[in-house]
Each structure stands twice: as C-alpha cells, then as structure tokens.
C-alpha cells in the first residue's frame, strides 16, 4: 500500500505494518520517503541493550497492510550532525571482524571454540582470531581445544576473566551432560 | 521456471548497468532519496552496523551496511546468506565481498543494535568542546568594548591624577575664593607646625651650618647611600622589563625621559637642595631686620613667588601640550623648543628662585634640632629625607630647582646667570597658556581647564607607548652628557619637566595595549575557529556523497546464481529425505545406508572447496546461458571454457561413431547433457572420497566371492578390473575431461556384469563365455548384415549415433534386470543370492548420487531403485514388466530430439519386445498388474516437465508407488504357487528377454554359438504366436498406440 500524495507518515508516530510474507513489524516512524516508498521505523533493540535500537527500513511496495497506531503531529526534533569518518571506520572494523571470524570457521575451528569466542566477545570487545587461536586484548591467547589450561598470557584481569568464562562454560557443559 | 530465472538474471544485469550509470548523479545534485534530509540522516547514522536484508523470495542476507544510492539501493560488505539450519557463523567461502540490493528486490532491512548517540558523540569530544569555546569566543565580541570602557575609566583616573598635578594650590585657592567665596587658612610659612629659624651672623650659627654640610657629604659618600642608589637603578630595570617594546625611536625617547627622572630622585641631591634653600632663607630674614629698605625687597620676593607658581602651572600645562606635538613627527619637537627659547626669557628669571623654597623649608628645620643634640641628629635627618621621597610627583619638581641652586653656589654669579638662561625654554613654553587663562576669567578658566584634560586623553594613549618603549636604550646616553657638560644638563631640563605627568598615564597606556592585544588575539581565534567549523562541515558534506557513489554491478548476478544453487540444494535434500520414509522394512536397511550416504554428501557439500564452488557457479551460469540461448557477456568465458571441454568429448565420440551426423540442435542437447555429466563427475569424485576404496576395488572384492562356486569362470574375469582401476582414479580427479571416459568405464563394468550373469544362468563352459565379451563390438557391426529386414537397417545408424546416450539409462536398468535371473535359480545356488544382493547395493550406491543432478533422468533412477527392491521380494516376470513402461512414456514429453533418440532405440527391438510384453501380460492376466503399469506410465512423464515442478512432484510420485508395490507383491506370491508349469515354461522366456534387451549382438551371439539355446528360441516364438490371438482388445490398443507415435517421431526426424 503506497501512501497517497499529501498524506505522509509523521515522524514520531507508531506504525504497524504487515509484509507480503506475513511478517508483522511495528515501531516508531523515523523517516519516510514518498518517492522511493521507504519507511524507516525505530524498534526496541533485539539484543535488549537499553541505549540501542533496531532500525527497520521497510519497502512499502511489498507491504499488504499499514496501520497507524499512534499518530503524532509534534514537530520532530532537529537532526544532529554526524561524524562520517567515525562511521566509515566503524564499517571497516565490522567488516574485518566478520571476515576474521569467517576465516576461523573455515580454518576448522570447532563449534565449541566459536561459541567461546562469541561469549568472550560479549564482555570483552577487544577479541579477535589469530588463525585458530583466540587473542584477547593482545594479552591472552587461547589455543585449541580452548580449555582453562589452554589460556596463556600476561597475568591480569583479562586472563582471570577469560579463565572464569571458560570455567563457567565447562561447568554448564558438565551439568548439561 | 528456468526461463524465469534467466529473465531475472538478465534484468539484474540491466539493473546493474543502470546502477553504474547512476554513479555520476549524486555528484551533480542531490537526487532521489538524497533530497530527503531526514532519511539521509537516519541511513547515514546506521552505516557500519550489522543488518539483515529480506528479499522478495524470502531469502535473508546478513552483512555490514556500507552505503546507499539515490534510488535507495543498498550495499552490504562481507555479506552472506543466512540459513536457519546452521546456527554457527558463516564460513569464509560463504561471505561475499560486496552485494548490491536493488530497492525493488528487498522487502525489509533490519539494522541491529544501532546506537543513536554513537555518531552524536562528537558533542563530547575535544573538537566539540573547542567548538563550544569558539562559540564562547563569539560571545566575547562584547569584551573589547568593555575593555575599551575600562581603559576609558582608567584614563579618567589618570586625568584625575593629572588634575591633581596640574592644579597649583594657589590657583585652587583663587578659584575657590572667586567661585565659592571660600578662603583657605593655609600658611606657607607653616608657623603653626614648626618654629622658624632666626638667622644670625654669629660664629656659632656658621659653625653649625658648616658641620651640617660636612655630615651631609659624609652620608652621601657612605656605602649604604650608594647601595640604595643602585636599588633605584634596579627599579629602572624593572620598569624596562615590564614595559612593552614596540618602536625603537619612541623607545629611545621614552628611556631618556625615564632616566632623567630617576637621576633627580636621589635623596642626596634633595639634601643639597634643602641646604642651599635654607641658606637663602637665612639671608632673607637678615636683610629684613636691618631696616625698612629690606622690607620692600621682601615684598618684591612675594610677588616673585606668585609668578613662579603660575609659571610652574604653565609648565605642567605646557608639558602636556608638547608631548602630543612630537608624537606625530619628531621634526615638530625642535621647532617648539626654538620658539619657546626667545619668548620665555623674563619669566624664567623669576620662577626658579621661589618654587624650591617651600619643600626644602620643611626638612631644613628638623636638622637644626638634632644638631643641638649631637651625633644622633644626622641619623634622624636621613629617614626624614627618605620619607620626603614618598610623594614622587612633588619631589621631581623640587629636585629640578635645587640642582640649579647648587651649581650657582659652587660656580658664582656668572654661572648662575647661565643657569637662568637654560631654564628659559620651559618657562617660555608655559607663558602663552597663562595669558590665555588670565583674560578668560571664571567661565574662560573653566573652559580652558577642560580643554587640556581632553587633549591628554586623546594624545597620551599613543605617546606613552613610544616613551615606555624607548626608556632603556636612551638612558646611558643622557647620563654621560649630564656628567660632562653643564649646558647639556640645561638642555635636558625641559624634558624632565613633562616626564612626571606622562609617567602615570604611561602605566595606564601600558595596560590598555595589553588588553587590546588580548582582544586582537581573541578576535583572531574567533576568526580561525568558525573557519575550521565550516571546513569540517564541508568535509562531512562531501565525504558521504563519495562513499555513497561506491556501487558494484556484478554482485547481484553472483548473488542470484548463489540463490539458485541454494534452491537446488534444498530440493536435493527434500528429494533425498522423502524416499526413505516410503520404503518398507526390508528397504529400510538399504534406506539407512542411503541416509548415511546422504549425510556424508551433505557434509561434503558443506566442506566443498572454493574451486568446486567456482566450477558449480560456472556450470550454473552455462546452464542458464544455454537454456536462455542468449550469450551474455558475463557468461561468455564460462561458455568458452565449456566449449573447449566439449570439443574433446566430441572428437572422441566422432572417433567411436564414424557415421554420426553433426547438427546444431544435437550439439545443444549434447552441451546440456555434458553439463549434467560434469555435475555427475563432481558427485562421483565426492562419492569416491566418501568411500576409502574406489569402486573398481569393490568390484574386485565382490568377484572373489563367486570363486568358490565357479573358480574357473571368475579367475580370468578378475584380470579385467586390474587395468581399469588405475585409469579411473585420474579421470575422477579431473571434473570435466572424464565425461567421455566414464561412459566406456560404465560399459566395461556392465559388460563384466553381463559376462558374470551369462555364465551363471547358462551354466555352460567358461571358456565359451569369455570370447563373447571381447567380440561384442564386432557382433554389433555384423548384426544388421545378418538380419535382412529393411527397417532394422534404417534404424541401425540412429541406434549407433545415439549409442552412448541411450546406454546410460538403459544399461543401468539392464544391470538391475540381470539380478532377477539369479533370483530365479535360488534353489540351485543359494550362495549366489547373497552375492547378487551385494551387487544390487553397489548399483544403488551408484544411482543415489546421480539423482539430485540428473533431474530429467531422476524418475528412471527412482523406478530403478524401486525395481531393485521389488526384485528382491518377488518373481522376475514382474520385474521385467516394470522397467519397460517408463521408457516409451518419457519420450513423448521431452524435446523432439529426445523422442527421436528413444524412438531410434525402440524400432530396433520393437517387434520382439512388444511381442514379449503381450505374452507376459496374456500369461499373467492380472488386472492389478495392468493397473500398476498404467500408473507408472502416467506418473513417469510429469517429473521431467519443469525443474522445480519435478522437485515438488517427485515426493508425490513416491507416495502412489508404495500402495502399488503392496498390491503387486501379493498377486505375485499367489501366482507362482498355483501355476508351477507355466512358471517353469516362463523361465526360458525370461532368459531370452533379458538377453535381448541389453544389446542385440550379445543376444544373438549365444544363439549362434550355443546349440542348447535353439530349442528355447522356437518355443518362445511358438508361445508368442499362440498368445497373440488370446489378448484382450484393450491390450491390443496399447501396442498400436505406441507404434504410430514412434513412427510419427521418426518421420519428424527425417
């Protein structure tokens, strides 16, 4: 359903859409472009982080139903300036991180190692793959088969934290088995 | 569906081109979505975040959002298709460098965990803080005005100080009396404070005076006095340090004036002045005492006192006036001095005597008292004199005149006259303003007093800079002439006259320039900071447009190819999984093995190398291009590579088939089949990888088992696989080239199987069996000659030309059919049954991997599997019936060429096969069997119609097969129990049929060579002729239907 000319989605209003694939989406209108028929919605973050949000870009050409739940006519707040260089560096970092993870998977890292990496990455962002080894904060190196005794590196909070994570995971596995 | 895929690919290629054309648009102007500021802001803020794109066909792709185009086409970096099956992350091979999604292709895009404040964090960075400071600087634009006001207020204070200096007490007294009627009680003699000294000519007085002089000289020569003078010099250095240096000329002049002031400050000089003035006063009272003559002299002295006071006031005013004059230009100073010289001669003569009289009188009286007491008196006099130095404004004026008096006392009347002349210039300069003030009166005096106040405001701010700057360099120069020459000192006198007043304004002026400097610096910062901000803004504006312009047109094609491959893989999985559910308990064992194989295949597919992926991609592209029959530029290289591979097999095929005709259509068909064969080769290589031992070795293992029953027969057969096994390995390694070699391998394997079967069934001498296998090709050549029938001769060339393609499905089917004869003799040889079971397993293994790729032939393989399982359960006659129906039926639905091929194969054996069919049906006379045959025939054509349709319908075909098999099992069991004699009679017929089907030469060979078979042949012929009149009208219709269709296809080919 394309919005008729003159009737646009006001920024800040709550909208619910149903796509041609019977998928229902709901969120706050952030932007709408009539020419390209694109609707940008802001939804609660899928990861549950308080200061984060998911942005949905919906192609209204493939939307079967649009419902305005709560319409808001207030003037939208002014737009803040953006640091383009910061965004570009973020994109580059995200890409490199994903490629390194994929490289590790293709190199034959076990599923256990992959899950361990993801668990560590949740708490310590400075975590990367070095072939089959997990390097944390450039200080701790975890070699296969990724057990507590496989942690090596400079003594400190990072090493103790990583060992706790691995120990906790081992305990969960033992309890489950 | 294939056509649709091709169209979508073509459309995407066009779109890719359009996107490439659109690149210059954003640079020209904001077009499309770029014009929507809010949309641009939100999309730019999510750049670099992970996002999932859901496309029209339901696929989901995950990657890092890179940029977007004016048409809202999205570009993802490091993108991969997200599959629900694998929960783990993507592999390196699955990730694509960059993918372009057209705005019309995606339905929903989800950017996960975006931090809206991430991009706005600039507000908390140092640069942002500096920007705020810049803003504050802008607010400080008002400060310089405030500073100006402050400087103005300070100047006002300076004026106040100047006013105090400018106003002479006498002038103030007069002003108050005239304007306000107030009379001051001030007495210059200070009689109320001190006791005047009575000057006497007595010796005691003279002695006391001489002693005082001596004490003063001693004090001045002492070390303490010198040290204190040095401290004063240090003060000078401090002034120099704190003053701001601007101009050299002004600096020198300033230094000169400062040094002169400092020189006159020393208290020693003040003491001398006091002594000299004291002596003057003593002389004056003496003259008064002698008589009335002295009294008029005093009166004259009083009048002279008034004049010098006015002169001093004028001097101060003049001091202000001449300062501005030298500021504009140094040349103006000399003319002012010259002019003042001749005019001021008379008033200077009177002025120098009286002004110094007042200040020295105060300090002179205290020393008289200490002199009476003794030595402590000189000590007390020093601190008092030092205290006299406190008021800097008054002290320099007093110091000037005392120096003159000292000189006159030392030198005499002549020298004193010269001194008066030297003092003339400043007094003359002061004369004109005095004249102005006196005639003006009250109102005029107020106006005149206001004018000089205003003038120093405007002029002083400039001059003090120059003076203060020039203080240090000119100091020593001025000092030397004073010490050497008295007229030089006289020349320096007028300058110090003005110096005290500019001193205070100099300090104020020094402050103002610093403030102004700060203001200017702030202004500079303000100017710089907004420029930086603008530059930042410009950079931010320009950079997104460049980044957004980055697009790749090739990626969508690749992504769609991968989509198709993924869809094919899904269909494979569905196709493989479903047959296992339909199989029975006996089949479950085989199905379990097959499932294991499937799981292995899936693992292999997942672990496939990038090279194989590229091969598959090229294969898919070639398939699409060949099916669409349009040579697209992207697919051209793959087509060329395929063409090169095709040439090889064509040459080999031509070598084998001497009389093969070359047609374009045939080439296209061959290309399609070769593509499928390539896929089959890949699967075979995977199959070989899964099995630790190659298939030839397995065949070798199977052969030793029969050795126990017939060691002589199998011993020579074991020799054949040995040379074949090394050849198979290198062929399997190469995916494309072994397309043709695989066919002869299959033929050889089949020949071996046929030879193995024949000895078992015939039970004849083994020596006789081996020669037929070796000479099978010769019999093929000779068979048409032996048979004089014309239709056989006409069909022979088609049969030969299509030989390799026809054999691929037929031979495999025949291989399965070889098993029933073995089962027919279970009583004779029990061990052989187990051996043949193993053979069937091997056949099943061969067939399984081919199914997913050979969609057109998949139904035949499917039926082959079912026939294999059925053969194990019930009699051979049913098995012989099942494979025949699918052959003619699928020929109708495929292309004409395929029909012609099948038709070519049918006419050669058509009369014998059809008669056999009628005989079999007549003998059984079972309606359920006929129905089962009809169902199989009906289902066969539907699978090959459409690629996705075949995938979807294949599970449907499996469901009806199950009940049919159940029905067929029961009647087969019943029939053999009741009709034992016809079963025995059918056995030889079955053998003959099986012998005929694989190849005429093999069938004819045993008839010609083996004498035991002839009695079976005529019996079969008699049976067929006898059965013909018996069949029902309905059965008669079926063969007639097939015959005309086949003939029609033949005519079409011709």
From TrEMBL, chain A:
Residues 80-174 form the AD domain. InterPro entries: AD (IPR047574), Lsm12-like (IPR039683), LSM12_ABD (IPR019181), LSM12_LSM (IPR048478), Sm (IPR047575). GO terms for molecular function: RNA binding. SMART domains: AD. Residues 2-72 form the Sm domain. It comes from the Eukaryota. This is Protein LSM12 homolog. Belongs to the LSM12 family.
Automatic annotation (TrEMBL), chain B:
It comes from the Eukaryota. SMART domains: LsmAD (SM01272). Residues 297-312, 464-474, 539-548, 578-591, 651-662, 947-959 have a biased composition (Polar residues). Residues 230-676, 877-962 are annotated as: Disordered. CDD domains: Sm_like (cd00600). Residues 323-333, 353-369 have a biased composition (Pro residues). Residues 230-242, 249-263, 559-575, 592-615, 664-676 have a biased composition (Basic and acidic residues). Residues 38-115 form the Sm domain. Residues 334-352, 487-496, 616-638, 896-933 have a biased composition (Low complexity). This is Ataxin 2. It comes from Rattus norvegicus (Rat).
